[in-house]
Specification:
This protein is mainly alpha-helical and 227 residues long. The protein is 90% helix and 0% strand. The protein is built from five helices and no strands. The protein is rod-shaped. The termini are far apart. The model is unreliable at 1-18, 27-44 and 207-227 (pLDDT under 50).
Length: 227
């Protein structure tokens, strides 16, 4: 009896395999078809994201970001230097006014001592002026680069990057202009103080120390006193 049952089981197994195999093949075929259909879509997406226009826009956006950072840093340094220069100018203005008020009330040694303080303040002001002029040159370069980057963004179609860069440029310009106006106002006051000091010096009969205002007579007075 077992011997007769084995072929029947074997036959049943063989009849079952073709049906199962067909379903398996159809499932595999469907899976492969879906995978093959998905490949062109992925390729199209990658192709769109890596197009020349997209790469240019991405690059020009990075450039505008970098130039804006450079402009911000140079602006900060320039404003700080301009502020220090303005303070130095006002210090010199104050010293000129004090010196002018003391003319005729001091002897020659006292006048000379005060004038040396004025000279020291003038040297400090000149040093700070040179510092801000150097930074101003770097700031102008950064400004031009930022303007060029904004134009490149506009030409490439990166409108958002272009608008952002131009807005930043306008803000920076207004900030620097405000500080420049303050320094120009200080320079005007310095010119007024120097003029006032010069007029009072010319009207004074007291002897001035050698070297003040480049006066030849003032330079000769100490020697006349020694004689």
């Amino acid at each position: 009896m077992p011997r007769h049952g084995l072929p029947a089981l074997a036959g049943t197994g063989r009849r079952g395999l073709p049906g199962g195999s067909g379903r398996w093949r159809r499932a595999v075929g469907a899976g492969l078809g879906a995978a093959l259909c998905a490949v062109p879509v992925a390729e199209k997406q990658n192709s769109a994201s890596l197009s020349n226009d997209a790469l240019i826009k991405r690059a020009v956006t990075l450039v505008t970001d970098s130039t804006s950072t450079l402009l911000s840093q140079t602006t900060y340094a320039l404003i700080e230097a301009l502020t220090e220069y303005t303070k130095a100018v006002y210090t010199l203005v104050s010293l000129y006014k004090q010196y002018t008020n003391l003319l005729g009330k001091m002897n020659s040694d006292e006048v000379d001592a005060v004038w040396q303080v004025v000279i020291g303040a003038r040297v400090d002001m000149t040093t700070k002026q040179q510092e801000y002029l150097k930074l101003e040159s770097s700031w102008m370069t950064a400004l031009r680069l930022s303007e060029m980057a904004a134009e490149a963004a506009y030409q490439s179609g990166a409108d958002q990057a272009s608008v952002t860069a131009r807005s930043h440029i306008q803000l920076i310009k207004s900030q620097v202009q405000e500080v420049r106006q303050l320094s120009q106002k200080a320079e005007t006051k310095l010119a007024e103080a120097q003029t006032e000091e010069l007029l009072k010096t010319q009207g004074e009969e007291s002897t001035l120390p050698q070297g003040i205002l480049g006066s030849t007579d003032a330079g000769e007075d100490p020697y006349l006193r020694e004689d």
